[in-house]
Amino acid sequence: MNLHRAQEILAADEKITVELNGVPVWIDSVDSSKSLVKVHAEENPADSRLVTVQELEEVH
């Protein structure tokens, strides 16, 4: 995924499925200066982490 798409998904009104290593995640924030994205697992909101935007995959 690229940084622009991550920002679009974060701002979207509808739910867009995003995965990190095959696990569905929510995007919490995007740090465009570092190309980092804060995400948390859908099933476990307490499981948040910073990852590079390239690690995320949009599921169609």
Automatic annotation (TrEMBL):
Its main location: other. It comes from the Bacteria. It comes from Paenibacillus aceris. This is Small acid-soluble spore protein H (Minor). Belongs to the SspH family. Transmembrane segments: none annotated. Keywords: Sporulation. It is found in: Spore core. The lineage of its organism: Bacteria, Bacillati, Bacillota, Bacilli, Bacillales. InterPro entries: SASP_SspH. Coiled coil: none annotated.
